[in-house]
Amino acid sequence: METIDFDSYSERKAFDETKTGVKGIVDTQISEIPRIFRLPQGGLPDKKPSVPASDFAIPIIDFADVHVSREGIVEKIKDAAANWGFFQVINHDVPLSVLEEIQDGVGRFHEEDPEVKKSYFSRDPTKKFVYNSNFDLYSSSSCVNWRDTFACFMAPDPPNPELLPVACRDAMMEYSKHMMRLGDLLFELLSEALGLSSDKLKSMDCMKGLLLLCHYYPPCPQPELTLGTNKHSDNSFLTILLQDQIGGLQVLHQDCWVDVSPIPGALVINMGDFLQLIAKDKFISVEHRVLANRAGPRISVASFFSTSVLPNSTIYGPIKELISEENPPKYRDINLEEYTKGYFKKGLDGTSHLSNFKI
Predict the structure, then answer these.
(1) Which residues contact 38 (CB under 8 A, 6 or more apart)?
(2) Which one of 53, 73, 207, 212 has the lowest number of neighbouring Cβ atoms within 10 Å?
(3) Which CATH number, 2.60.120.330, 3.40.50.880, 3.40.50.720, 3.90.79.10, labels domain 6-357?
């Protein structure tokens, strides 16, 4: 893979200093994408499944009867988390109006007057609300990704609403409440899927932190030459993703890229690195990516359950109940803040950060 040469660094810096992101480039009505966005190999390698798409699709789990047929749903989650690391949830009780409002709010912010957005621009990940393009702009050896993002920690200490942009303030506060509620249920079901008491994962503070990452993927004139998001696994315990109907999210399964087809009203759930570590590989944190597209803008909202960059003295290791003489620990203990620093430093370069912690 190409390393960042001086030219690339200067071009990345010049791009960064505009503070208008990829949206700013698109607004100049370019027909060719700048060099820093181009994949080193000149395009996307094709790794498509050879079987029909219907045989190769991430599981869809219906939560409509979760309180009646809970055991059956736990079994489905256990299977999906172990084999795919991903599933989609329908009938999850988050109102459609709440999903639509957060998507609209994210769009409103990213399409706001550039001067308004610039006032929120920062590269300090510990700030309450941060807007920028590519958190790993200066550290990743891969191409710059075709997306802009704003991020905000909604828990454990929710921001003062006055600090949030008017365009998305109410939507973020409301959406976060629903994510905490759904997260609560998901962590109970995942605990049960590990054969543990319902409150096990919650008692380990797995849902102590909630980080909202709100992505905006502008339309791209040459989508085959770049990526919306490079291949990566998530720096979280669990991620709940709301994606719009444009599509582009792909999961790496059996060495093939499988499309996560948008389903109206559904939410995509995936396991993060920290959950794989404490669950001793019983659940898998799977690599995924987002394709660039001409249709855009594509909007997605990722809710990361993780304190990541926030101070958190808890040390995480394999859950004690899952360890025995026959089943020794597979990873060494980690501090989330330290893990995240390494994850950020490495950037989305297509390699697993978790593999560095294997025993």
Answers:
(1) 143, 225, 226
(2) 53
(3) 2.60.120.330
